[in-house]
Structures are given as structure tokens and as C-alpha cells.
Specification:
70% helix; transmembrane; elongated; mainly alpha; single chain; 14 helices; membrane; HGSNAT_cat
Length: 326
């Protein structure tokens, strides 16, 4: 492999696809930030539907990495260009590790998207001109193995980047070698098949038309820079807004009222009466600063006395006849 290569036209459709992928990833991270600061109720990092969304976006992003390797180096590796881009990715990954360690020390990112792209790009070079049957076989093996084998050894952070864990370690982003390098190989396979067909000429002839398409293509060409900068910008906007608006207070109140309403109605009380009862209970919790007791279940004797008195008061509010028996 040398720096000699046959120049290929730039595929605008790939730039547009990258632009769409980076927009999706920015949108997902924005929702993650809103969830973390309690502006929205869903747990974006853990709820199953959000996990599917995140993995789908990641799969597209990594497949495009494979496509880019073939388009850039399939006819001969351009080492100068490769190392320049690779160094940028590595420095970006290092910046993310340092930044997340400072902000989220318990869940800092030590092998996230950019770390994975750096490693996968190096490994992927070996497959841009390898026999296609070999690339397909390796892709199948890399994707399938994590579903067939797991070991507690890989639960530890030093080995978790390989991907055979039983329980994933605590981190805000982890993109392990298995199975995700297999997705890069899928991108390599797809690009090589397309380039060997008449479809390549048709795709190369497509040019962005209109402001939207040109904007997407521009974002696609600068997707790595956007990825590196977008989260600090989002956090710089969302974190101060959270400090000013304190959404966790409203979310905490909503959680309490929803749980109380469900429990109350399960006991046979009508919805309107339960609403009155729960609102009364919320006022008692806030006035007596009992949030920790309510959410942790760690209730002192004094706090239990206060809760019992509040419960009697709120019950009497919806059932006035109880006042006669007190």
C-alpha cells in the first residue's frame, strides 16, 4: 500500500448522509442533556426506545466511516491525508475524555465514538483492498461474537473496550471493538460493491440542489469538527438554563404527584379526590422538607410522625367525615 492512488470524484450523497447523521447525533445528545438536567422525563441514556435510537444513529455513523475509508484509500492509501485526519480524531477523543472526566468523573468517556473511529480507521485500512469474501467473513464474525460469548473479565474498564462484557461498566459512552468494528466493515463492503457497479457513476453525478441539501453536504464534510464541538456548546446552554429554571424541582413534583395519584386511585378513590389528596400531600412534603425521606425510603421516627399527621390531614380534606372521628 502506497500513496499512489487513482482519484475518485467526491460523492455528494455521502456528504449529505453524513450531514443527516451528525444532525441526528446532535439531536440525540441534546435530548440526553435535557434528560440529565431533568427538563424532560425520559431517561434518554437507559430507556429501551432511546437506546435503540442511539445505536441506530451510531450504526449509520460507523458505516459511513467504512464508506469513507474506501472512497479515500481504496485505490491506494494516502498516508499524509490519513494521518492528518487520524490525529485530529485522536486529539478529539482525548479532549472528550478529559472534558467528561472533569464533568462526569464517575461515568467519563474513555472509549467513545471518536476513540472507536480512531482505532477502527486503522484496522479498516487492512480491509479496503482485501478479498471481499474475507471482509464479509470478518464482518459477520465481529458482529456475531458478542452475542455468543461473554466473560466477567470484560466488565472491567481496562478490557471493556473489546466488548465481551456481561455487565457494561459505568460510562456515558462506550463503543467497543465487538460488534461495532463489524459495522465499519459493512460500510467497506457496501462501498466496494457499489464502486464496482454501474451505480457508482449515477451516484457520483448527483449534486446538491437547494439550500437544505447544500447545508447537509457542508455539515457532512465537517462532521468530525461538529461532533467535537456540539456537546460543549449544548452543555454551555443547557446547564445555565437548568441552574436558572431548576427543572428538577418541577420534575420531582410531577413524579410525586403521578405516583401518589396512581396509588390513590388503585385504592378505589376517584380521580378528582385523589388529585386533591395528592396536592395536599405534596404541600406537606415541601413544607416539612421530606423529599429525601419520600424518595429514598429512609424515614426517621420524627419524619414518620410528620408524614402520618399529613396523611390524616389530607384524608380528612377529601373525606370530611373523618374530622368527626379525630
Amino acid at each position: 500500500m502506497t500513496d499512489q492512488h487513482v482519484a475518485r470524484p467526491r460523492f455528494a450523497v455521502i456528504d449529505i448522509a453524513r450531514g443527516m447523521a451528525i444532525i441526528a447525533m446532535v439531536a440525540y445528545h441534546f435530548c440526553w442533556d435535557l434528560s440529565f438536567f431533568r427538563f424532560i422525563a425520559p431517561d434518554v441514556g437507559r430507556d429501551p426506545e432511546w437506546v435503540v435510537i442511539a445505536r441506530s444513529i451510531l450504526a449509520v455513523f460507523l458505516a459511513l466511516v467504512g464508506v469513507g475509508l474506501v472512497l479515500g484509500h481504496g485505490s491506494g492509501i494516502r498516508w499524509h491525508s490519513f494521518w492528518r485526519r487520524w490525529a485530529f480524531v485522536v486529539l478529539g477523543g482525548l479532549a472528550i475524555t478529559i472534558g467528561t472526566w472533569l464533568v462526569f468523573p464517575d461515568g467519563f468517556v474513555y472509549f467513545g465514538v471518536l476513540h472507536a473511529i480512531a482505532l477502527f480507521s486503522l484496522l479498516g485500512l487492512a480491509f479496503v483492498r482485501a478479498p471481499l469474501w474475507l471482509v464479509i467473513g470478518v464482518a459477520v464474525a465481529v458482529i456475531a461474537l458478542p452475542f455468543l460469548y461473554a466473560d466477567a473479565l470484560f466488565n472491567a474498564k481496562p478490557y471493556s473496550w473489546i466488548g465481551f462484557w456481561q455487565v457494561p461498566p459505568p460510562t456515558n459512552d462506550l463503543v467497543p471493538l465487538f460488534p461495532w468494528f463489524g459495522v465499519v466493515l459493512v460500510g467497506i463492503i457496501a462501498a466496494r460493491i457499489v464502486l464496482a457497479s454501474s451505480l457508482a457513476t449515477k451516484l457520483a453525478a448527483i449534486r446538491p440542489q437547494g439550500r437544505l441539501a447544500n447545508t447537509l453536504a457542508f455539515m457532512g464534510r465537517w462532521s468530525l469538527l461538529i461532533y467535537l464541538l456540539h456537546q460543549p456548546i449544548l452543555l454551555a446552554l443547557v446547564a445555565p438554563a437548568a441552574g436558572l429554571l431548576q427543572p428538577e424541582i418541577a420534575m420531582r413534583q410531577n413524579d410525586f404527584l403521578a405516583a401518589c395519584q396512581s396509588t390513590c386511585m388503585a385504592g378505589g378513590t376517584t380521580a378528582p379526590l385523589c388529585t386533591t389528596y395528592c396536592q395536599c400531600g405534596l404541600e406537606g412534603v415541601e413544607q416539612n422538607d421530606l423529599w429525601n425521606a419520600v424518595f429514598t425510603g429512609m424515614v426517621t421516627a420524627q419524619e414518620q410522625t410528620i408524614l402520618d399527621a399529613s396523611n390524616r390531614q389530607c384524608s380528612a380534606l377529601i373525606y370530611p367525615e373523618l374530622n368527626a372521628t379525630q
